Amino acid sequence: MTSPARNLPRLLGDAKRWFDDALLASMRAAGEQPVTVGQAAVFAALDEEGTTVSELARRTGVTRQTAHQAVHGLIGMGLLEQAPDPASARSRLIRPTAEGARVHRRAQDTLVVIEGVLAERIGAAAVDALREALTLPLGEPPLVEAP
């Protein structure tokens, strides 16, 4: 009996985990403070000028409470800081500290190397095609009837 083909969301999730595992292990091996996948996702979702916790939660697809926990863990590590939001007296912006910016640049550079490893394994053309396909506009999510 053959097993059914894995659906695209599962394949994309598996690929994301491969990148996350490689990045986090590489950063730990380089002597950086260990962070969780959720904390790394917060960094990836930050705007340069700062981002509210609510917006970070929306961008990362988690609850505000979960985003808040990740942010405060990173603040405790000295990688993020809070600043007043000039657009709202009730909000605070989350932004990287100088150390957080350094670690984020190192992570970005590490991802370039990891992408290079992927290109060696599956071919540069496949990586380029994947990047191209994933940057095409998808439009609004469809509402379809279940079969």
UniProtKB/TrEMBL annotation:
The HTH marR-type domain covers which part of the protein?
28-127
Among Pfam families, the record links this protein to: MarR_2 (PF12802)
InterPro entries named among the record's database cross-references: HTH_MarR-typ, MarR/SlyA-like, WH-like_DNA-bd_sf, WH_DNA-bd_sf
For this protein, the record's SMART domains field holds: HTH_MARR
**What protein name does the entry list?**
HTH marR-type domain-containing protein
Q: Which organism is it from?
A: Streptomyces chryseus
